[in-house]
Task: inverse folding
């Protein structure tokens, strides 16, 4: 990344509810670590998103400034795609909300939730879904990659149980993708991770 004026960074930071980390900030080294310890990438910025507005703002900022972008949920991708050198990491790990509707037998899951977060909420209602095996894996990344786990032989892959997704596009638009709305995008994300 080419150097960026501090007033541009300060303006970006002022629009975030979450935290913006740069290489000299306390916590930066911990924030760039991922599950595969062999990956040692150093992003120019890490945004620890507090909500969807932070994601929208970060995608727009990366686009407007030509920054390489990496998305971090559970950070379990073996290739280390959750972090990039010199670009902007959108860290979703703080967005962990899981809401269970036991009557509809549905879960509403934020992009930073892990399998442990999901299981904790679902088990309170005696429910489960086919997820992966490692509790620190992110639900979003696992789902987009297909998602194979203990219950898959009986209930299919995690992605087979995906009903809809709220997506932030590269042009910083929020879209709902499901069988009846943006169905082509819904088809693409089912296994596209």
Result:
């Amino acid at each position: 990344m080419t150097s960026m004026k501090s007033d541009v960074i300060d303006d970006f930071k002022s629009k975030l509810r979450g935290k913006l980390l740069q290489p000299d900030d306390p916590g930066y080294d911990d924030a760039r670590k991922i599950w595969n310890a062999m990956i040692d990438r150093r992003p120019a910025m890490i945004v620890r998103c507090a909500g969807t507005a932070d994601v929208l703002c970060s995608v727009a900022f990366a686009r407007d400034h030509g920054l390489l972008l990496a998305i971090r949920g559970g950070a379990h991708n073996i290739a280390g795609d959750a972090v990039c050198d010199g670009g902007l990491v959108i860290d979703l790990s703080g967005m962990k909300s899981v809401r269970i509707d036991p009557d509809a037998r549905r879960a509403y899951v934020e992009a930073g939730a892990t399998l442990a977060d999901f299981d904790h909420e679902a088990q309170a209602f005696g429910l489960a879904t086919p997820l992966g095996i490692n509790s620190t894996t992110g639900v979003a990344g696992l789902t987009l990659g297909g998602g194979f786990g203990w219950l898959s032989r009986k209930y299919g892959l995690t992605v087979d149980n995906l009903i809809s997704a709220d997506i932030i596009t590269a042009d910083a638009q929020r879209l709902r993708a499901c069988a009846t709305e943006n169905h082509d995008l819904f088809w693409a994300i089912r296994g596209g991770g």
